[in-house]
Design a protein that fits this description.
Blueprint: H1 3-15, E1 19-25, E2 32-35, E3 43-50, H2 53-69, H3 83-97, E4 101-102, H4 104-127, H5 132-147, H6 155-176
Antiparallel strand pairs: 1-2, 1-3, 3-4
Helix pairs in contact: 1-4, 1-6, 2-3, 4-6
Length: 187
Amino acid sequence: MSARRADLVQAYTAALETAPLLVLAVAGKQPSRIAYQSVKNLDIVETYWFAKVQHVELVVHRCRDDLADIGALRSDGWIDLPAVEVCEVVTRNARLLGAPIRSMDQVRGEAEKAVERIVANVEMARIQGKLRTVNAEYKAYRQRELAANRKPISYSAHLAQFTLSLVLLAAQNANAAPLARPKSPVE
């Protein structure tokens, strides 16, 4: 992947509203914690990525309720269960709440696919002469810069900015897209 595409993938990923939820433990065992970020001296046992911050908050709330109900949640936030069991609680509650869990590799893969589609569409539109508005904007910008005795950016840099704006718009649309309805246990 070129540096330019890698930058576009990074921009897309950064614009997503993904949020992590970590299961932490002392030496990977017990007691454990659920946290939004890593904590010094605790091992990260598992990192779950959710499409939205609200999903993380819902899952955490539900997990804490479940853990409190069985007497495993201490008042200081520590959980008297092995981290593996806490991971099962997180996974079960995420599934019950319809909050899809993704790995960072999956998020990055989705970003790479989106960027590839956008770059291919821009290139096809350029070849087919369908970027009239973008070209007109560049021409007007170039004339303004030259009239003001300033050096304009190149057309390729202008096209790169246009492509970046499409990438950011695609990430916004991905954030706004409704998530798939979870399957009921009966289906």
